Amino acid sequence: MTHYLSIKDIDNLSVWVKEARILKSQPKADKNLGANKTICMLFFNNSLRTRLSTQKAAMNLGMDVMVMNFGSEGWTLEYGDGTVMDQNTSEHVKEAAQVVSQFCDIVAIRAFASLTDKEQDEAEVVLNGFKKYAGIPIVNMESSVGHPLQALADAITLEEHNSKERPKVVLSWAPHPKALPHAVANSFVEMMQLQEADFVITHPKGYELNPAITKDVQIEYNQEKALQDADFVYIKNWSSYKEYGKVLNQDPNWMMTKKKLGSAKFMHCLPVRRNVVVEDAVLDSDQSLVIEQANNRTYAAQIVLKKILENL
Amino acid sequence: MTHYLSIKDIDNLSVWVKEARILKSQPKADKNLGANKTICMLFFNNSLRTRLSTQKAAMNLGMDVMVMNFGSEGWTLEYGDGTVMDQNTSEHVKEAAQVVSQFCDIVAIRAFASLTDKEQDEAEVVLNGFKKYAGIPIVNMESSVGHPLQALADAITLEEHNSKERPKVVLSWAPHPKALPHAVANSFVEMMQLQEADFVITHPKGYELNPAITKDVQIEYNQEKALQDADFVYIKNWSSYKEYGKVLNQDPNWMMTKKKLGSAKFMHCLPVRRNVVVEDAVLDSDQSLVIEQANNRTYAAQIVLKKILENL
Amino acid sequence: MTHYLSIKDIDNLSVWVKEARILKSQPKADKNLGANKTICMLFFNNSLRTRLSTQKAAMNLGMDVMVMNFGSEGWTLEYGDGTVMDQNTSEHVKEAAQVVSQFCDIVAIRAFASLTDKEQDEAEVVLNGFKKYAGIPIVNMESSVGHPLQALADAITLEEHNSKERPKVVLSWAPHPKALPHAVANSFVEMMQLQEADFVITHPKGYELNPAITKDVQIEYNQEKALQDADFVYIKNWSSYKEYGKVLNQDPNWMMTKKKLGSAKFMHCLPVRRNVVVEDAVLDSDQSLVIEQANNRTYAAQIVLKKILENL
Fold this sequence. Notes:
Three copies of one chain form a homotrimer. By secondary structure, chain A is an alpha/beta fold. The first copy, chain A, has two domains: about 5-145 and about 295-310, Aspartate/ornithine carbamoyltransferase (Rossmann fold, 3-Layer(aba) Sandwich); about 150-295, Aspartate/ornithine carbamoyltransferase (Rossmann fold, 3-Layer(aba) Sandwich). Chain A is built from 13 helices and eleven strands. The first copy, chain A, has helices at about 15-25, 50-60, 70-75, 95-100, 120, 125-135, 150-160, 185-190, 210-215, 225, 260, 280-285, 290-310, and strands at about 40-45, 65-70, 75-80, 90, 105-110, 140, 170-175, 200, 220, 230-235, 265. In chain A, the strands form three sheets. Chain A has a five-stranded parallel sheet. In chain A, strand 8, helix 9 and strand 9 (about 220) form a beta-alpha-beta unit.
């Protein structure tokens, strides 16, 4: 394995989840694996969980860590071919990627969707630029299209809390004041397609995710109906994909409540806006798995880094 | 011991000072104590001395360090209970604190007073939010109300330079162009209340610190009188507490001068505005202890972290 | 050796280059040399290569690294003597330098030219302020006047790719939309004056570098003539020195092209604006050494830090 760009880079999800859970029980067991290896974490967007959990995972493996915030500490990169760079971009990703890769063994990158240019977002210019030119393994710390470290942590969390052979898992859209990317939802959908589960997506009309990702996953526009007999409910806002990046709906009736949740477990990637996306009563209940999902971010990152290190 | 939130968390000041001075003489002696332990330093405000000295102290103890600037690298947290988070806050401290605590063993936090809302400042929402929800030891790297790492460094410095059984120590207000918090003055006052000393506070009328903190400490409005026969003069600006956060006075006559200082030692927490708070002649003289105070920040942080690590 | 402020701090360039190349072949060989030593990297300006390569070099030597961005994480320093600091500066370099030096063993500093005040830029107030007051070795990570880590990396790169006893090396100005500093060009010129080479500088009239630096180096205003039979062509934009900081010329005919380059090797310090400073065809050809120059930044920094550590 070389890169971890999407859920598709996992060759066997259930094996990875098992191995991640073993790491969780003894996080420092591989402390020599990363000795004399360096990870460079490049942030084109802000981060809390991803920043700290990935750094922690790298340190658990004995790696050196370098962090760079491209916005405040660097400059704007150019991604186009043949561009006459006489405007706002100061360096081409061709150079930046080749250069950075000489200072480290693995590059982890966070670069969100613009939500203004679908084509450019789907081209994943930052991630793919580094993949093309860096020549070393790239880890996706959330890109325009996916957030596979989050989805892997979600898979670990599901495995820890699931007691059924075929649980019912519902991904439900929720309202939010801002236009948010599709990355978390996309990767969760891709991950669920690798699971034994009854998986349903529910959202208002107009909020269909990219059909190339959802494929034949059942979409149910009636949230109440979708939630019936759910074992796990994953809540997430995203903006419209069709009317790209638009907020079409802020209907508070789509907020998750204790009543709607029933006896299901509640999941969310965080950060979450309380009483907008989900009410306090859910987050403050024992049914909420959000803190454990965040905890598992460390072990998701650690199993990914471990597999990359073993193949360097 | 679990937290280091204020001077009150020191069980025996003179013992801590002694132990800090031993650490100072052999800073790497406990290098294995922090092995496989991580401190996460969260900055809600800028920092130079605190950032570097706390990081150095942690490294001296063999800890891993993660630094996060919430402003430029993260987002705005919510502290209110039951808030409908449809405005500027993106994550509740309930989640942030629980999550961060999973990635480390100790959290150190800097969060200044707003100086606009006394009630909220005194509630110490950031520090207390993390204390309530993090479930791991919290270290105060300057909060609304206190700066106990500074005061502990000041105690070490006093001990190093004091030759009397009962020295006279004066805390004198000084002018400043901006409204500054009360944190440093508050913690210095609390620390002095644990010392054998004649302790006097002097400032213009209207600059009384919180009487719940100063208690029965002598307040002398005549600076000249206060400074008579002083052994140590601690200079610090703060804004009005009564007319909360207001600058009532910028009278340059309150600036500390070589003449006023006499033969006393000069102390200040830094950063200091030269020739506004204190004249060059004082800072550039042998009577100034400010550089040594800053140096002792490392050992103040180190004794605090050491005690926390020993009780983990 | 104590400081690395300019090329003049290299006692024997060819020996340093040789030693750097040995380090390059075994970068972790001196991993114990920096044990229990800390470097503090202070950035007053943004940085990618310098940030990562210097950090990597320090880690290769086993040092602890602390990074501080003065702009976003700190405040504005004062450099003047006797200033009444009632304006925008919050701390004097006298205090800042003395304080920082207590938390580390080496300070590395990046502080660009303002390009508005020649006298102040040439006084190198940041670098010289820290040199004067820190009392520990200072490393220049690009100052107003020089970028000696870059020039040392350039010397390593030249040595790696040169096969002649006396190669012809041309430093050619190129157009750029913004006013850029003279630091890289200055240090390259100073470094070339220590080399066996035919060295020519070419630029439009009005772009003469400081004659105190270029001394008797040949200046040829006709780029075509200058480039004849060149073995190495170093391209760099800089603003006018005479009309300090002005952009006098953006003539695209000065852009480097494959045709002009002939069979010479191409060098640039990066970041570079493609198709403004140099055309794609050059950067994407085998004649470009820019990625190797960036790679050698690590070993330039490492030999400098090694020599400093050996003399601590």
